[in-house]
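Pipeline run #58 for the internal structure catalog. This entry was flagged by the ingest filter as a single-chain record with no existing model, so it goes straight to prediction. Upstream metadata was stripped on purpose; only the residue string is passed forward. Reviewer on rotation: M.T. Logging verbosity set to normal.
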Amino acid sequence: MNKISNQFSSIEQITDKYLRTNSQEAGVPEGKLSFGEILKQKQSVSDSSVLKFSKHASMRLQSRNIELSTEQKERLETGAEKAEAKGMKESLVIVDSYSFIVNVPNKTVVTAMDYTESNENIYTNIDGAVII
């Protein structure tokens, strides 16, 4: 055990030395962000209104050769925003000939299909639909 010598003139000096109250001494280099600051930044980015596509939905888009234009993506986001305003949780959003199931609280497209895939026009586990 280290013995504290008489090299300190106050308790604050001991605290600074052994408890590392200075962020630079605590391992955070000057000019770098702390973990908490990075976490807050990431959370604020994820809270934005940008609609995400799940891995499943991305695979469906690719396998079904669905390419959305910027205007269609904007309309899909608008549909998701309208679903949120109405209190929907799982919504069907139809944009042109494409159908999307959107998890509204997570702002995530769960699956996607075009008109040839939805020939029976049966959608389950949704609580509303938005046609844009």
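catalog note: Residues 8 and 14 are 7 Å apart (CA to CA).
catalog note: The helical segments are 11-18, 35-46, 55-63, 70-85.
status: ready for reviewer M.T.
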